[in-house]
Amino acid sequence: MPNRTAQIHPFVPRHAEAPVRLALTDTRIVAIVGPRQSGKTTLARRIAEDDGRTFVTLDDDQSRRFARDDPVGFVRGLQPAVIDEIQRAPELILAIKREVDENPSPGRFLLTGSVDLFKGTISPDSLAGRVETIELLPFSQAELAGTGPSRFLDRAFAGDFPGIGETGASADLLDRVVAGGFPPALIRTTPARRRAWLNAYARALAERDVADIAPIGGRDELVRLTQHAAVSTGQLLNMSSLGSHLGVDGKTVDRWLVLLERMFLLRRIPAWHNNNLKRLVRTPKLHFLDSGLLASLRRTDAAAIARDRQTLGPLLESFVYAELAKATTPDHDQTTVSHYRDKDGIEVDFILERSPGDIVGVEVKAAATALPRDFRGLRRLRDALGDGFACGIVLHDGERIQRVGSRLFAIPVRLLWEA
């Protein structure tokens, strides 16, 4: 796979940069949160240099000790400032709150964190009304292409696709899926080097970085949970089954999954429900937020998938989920993502909802064409929801856009970032 990160620019522009800069003009504290190595520090340094802000990283031992020992003294005199990896000294939160309450000028602090900062116990205060949080996930495909944010969601909710059209072949889709979006993985020149980095990354999160969030024993079990979750991605979540593999109960699995979610490793996708549709399954699904990391945990690569295309399905589904998650982030899009499955076994991979009665269904197929049976779940949704169903889309690994019925489209995956 070409080294797209290095070819484009030493700094790949991030779609989250404009929302961060805008938030700094009217909000006292702005927090960039996302997984480690997703580019938060690079973006924060860029803003600090442009704005003349003091930059402090709590990955530095001396700075971290000072912050923990004397948080009020640490914060005093820093403004305006960037504090990087603030989850490593949560004692600073109350000191920052005091500072911005005494001086409510906007843009006082730009924080970064590799965990969801203001959920759970890591933050002693929610900072409600004082902070705006913006996610920065690994590179989206649109960012790697050097284009603006994708218009796919807007077009989907408007049903704005041609009745028929050609997009050209997506010959490198397998490479995109197994590479993912983590910058340090993309700069490695061979698949083997990328897998080595991604495997080490996953282990480091489970064995070391989780200590920044909560005291936990059994870190080997957390590593194993990550591996079992990778095998189960795209499937209905079975806590008991995961627990039996690890020798723990379902409540422990749930607690550990919360930790992995808060580190942006994976997410539980809730089941969608609607009063017009009965007998719906209420169980969530698991999806990873980076398909490259998922491929590494599943010990596969583009060559192996090319030999057995059936293995592409779960990876492509997580790849699509990650692209959808990234598309909803920069402008604080209120689109929610869930999944649909009923007790007849009919399902739709993703339900996108912007408001009650404004629904898009997305089904993912790891094939070059979409077949009539692939629209079964979408048709059921359309017929039940009526005007509330904006459109249904089967994403496929082909070249042709085609309307196959009222508000139903077969669309190449590449339109996720080229729309």
Low-confidence stretches: 1-9
The proportion of residues forming helix, as a percent range, comes to: 40-55%
Number of strands: 14
The multimeric state of the shown protein is single chain
Measure the end-to-end span.
23 Å
The assigned structural class equals alpha/beta
How much strand content do the residues show? 15-25%
Largest sheet: 7 strands, mixed
Mean pLDDT equals: 89
Structure annotation, total helices: 19
Q: Spatial order of the strands in the main sheet?
A: 6-13-14-12-11-10-9
- Compute the CA-based radius of gyration: 22 Å
Name the overall outline.
globular
Write the layout of secondary structure elements.
Blueprint: H1 4-8, H2 17-24, E1 29-33, H3 40-51, E2 54-57, H4 61-69, H5 71-75, E3 81-84, H6 92-102, E4 109-113, E5 131-135, H7 141-145, H8 152-158, E6 164-166, H9 173-179, H10 183-186, H11 191-207, H12 219-232, H13 239-246, H14 250-262, E7 266-269, E8 285-288, H15 291-297, H16 302-307, H17 312-327, E9 336-341, E10 347-355, E11 358-364, H18 376-385, E12 389-396, E13 400-405, E14 408-412, H19 415-418
Parallel strand pairs: 1-4, 1-5, 2-3, 3-4, 11-12, 12-14
Antiparallel strand pairs: 6-13, 7-8, 9-10, 10-11, 13-14
Helix pairs in contact: 9-15, 11-12, 11-15, 13-14, 15-17
